[in-house]
What we know:
The complex is a heterodimer.
Chain A: E1 17-21, E2 33-39, E3 42-49, H1 57-61, H2 70-74, H3 81-96, H4 102-130, H5 135-155, H6 175-199, H7 203-209, H8 217-222, H9 228-232, H10 239-242, H11 263-289, H12 308-311, H13 315-326, E4 335-341, E5 346-352, E6 361-365, H14 367-372, H15 375-379, H16 384-394, H17 398-402
Antiparallel strand pairs in A: 1-2, 2-3, 4-5, 5-6
Helix pairs in contact in A: 3-4, 4-5, 4-11, 4-16, 5-6, 6-11
Chain B: H1 6-17, E1 22-25, E2 31-35, H2 40-49, E3 57-65, E4 73-81, E5 86-94, E6 100-102, H3 111-122, E7 125-127
Parallel strand pairs in B: 2-5, 6-7
Antiparallel strand pairs in B: 1-2, 3-4, 4-5
Amino acid sequence: MQNHPVYTDNDPQSENSTLNLGPTHPATHGVFQNVLQLDGERIVSGVSTIGYIHRAFEKIAEHRPFYQITPLTDRLNYCSSPINNMGWHMTVEKLLGITTPKRVDYLRVIVMELARISDHIICNGVLGVDTGAFTGFLYMMEYREAIYEIYEEVCGSRLTTNIGRIGGFERNFNTIAFDKLRKFLKDFPPVLKEFESLFNRNRIFVDRTRDVAAVTAEEALAYSWSGPLLRAAGVDYDVRAMNPYSSYEDFDFEVPVGDNGDVYSRFLVRNEEMKQSLRIIEQALVKLEKEPTDIFHADVPEFYLPPKEEVYNNMEALIYHFKIVMGEIPTPNTEVYHSVEGANGELGFYLINDGGRSPYRLHFRRPSFINYQMYAPMSKGMLLSDAIINMSSLNVIAGELDA
Amino acid sequence: MGKITNEELLKSINSKFEGQVTVAGEPYGLLTIETSPENIIALLSFIKTDPALQFIYLTDITAVHYPEQEKTIGVIYHIHSLVNNVRIRIKVFIDGDNCHIPTATTLWEGANWMERETYDLFGVIFDGHPDLRRILNVDDMTAFPMRKEFPLEDPNRVDKKDYFFGR
């Protein structure tokens, strides 16, 4: 059995031509291989091959203590790493029964919504590029940079953030972070509005995207789609609204829903989600004013590493530091499933624990992996150029696809 | 929380599958039940189509390996009822050397890649699957890497022994 179909004219009688789209093709934005049978410009059939950047995260995770798994989650959906980080922290907190203070929840909400915005900026910007409009992408990219600068103030890194710790954050947000956040909240909405006015009623864009790759709600559910794709098909399933985590129940926001699941609906849903995310962040800033400003982690010394200066000057901190690093703190022998609304859909963590320092089994429910499997079947009968923008609008991230 | 409680859900399942299903607990409020490979598809089909339950959304299929147990491989389904906002976890334990289980692709198209991934990593053979090939690893791989006997790293390496790290 050949797992990697390559360019062959295996059937000389066939009028169709074979096209290897990928694994590295500039139009696919990642390592995706699709071997397509083409009749002229129409796709007759396609075979997807994935796994080119499989890094065995689930296996590695079985050999690492909980707090060292966060960097692995960074590399799932690397366009919105903070959501993955937070999802993992919350899974472990659920396992250990840690309740986080409200301020931590709100800070997390801010970071997660920024991540969602930056992910949607990329997706919608690139969708514009693939339909021939470069301007919107460049224009929006500046604000992804602004978001990354906020991450830098919070955790020191930009793309693979490793942000936060089990129980909260490793340090408090500084004033520069809040200043940058307020500047972003002031500067970004007009740009988003301008971006929308570039595209929403743009004749070329609408002609290229309307009714392209339309998916019904039934199909989307049968393929276990989630996130903006499922909502564009008309199903209002959003983990934030349905099973609120990190105090999302305190926020007032809407779940945008599309009408026919085509590329255009997905574009509109993502734009609207960015606006809702801005709303959430603004509410979070107001709520934060009522919270004590010095709390940035839960009071769980047996799981939260103490600051280094205390480790060397304080007996208790030294003991906890030693116990955490050496993994000598018992954990419950049970299993837990926790999911968060990632930028691409329901990002789930299924953790089976045997009471030790590292998971017995950890499984990531990766939305890109599950969303992408419809790509080849749905491409049948589609124009090649439409299949390209369909892939952009699925927003499949290779890291999340291959784990 | 959901519109139906775990007790009601269990009662409803037991009315159809009395004696075929055992409860494995409710960790963190998520009802976990166990059943056999013979009953799994009938059970999934029942909870999917029952008008009161409507577990229409397949969240995930995965597996776990317990080398010490008699039946070493556990296949785990997470199903979500979007209408009632209730989740259920169903486990099926099968023999590790001869692990066959019927496919769920007859109920959900989305089960296709989830089962391929489970086959790829654990060697679970889903009978009736339309295209059961490896998905993440290379074709000519002979092992199933998520099984516990498969080492994470080359066991001959001497620079990364656990005792250097106090493990």
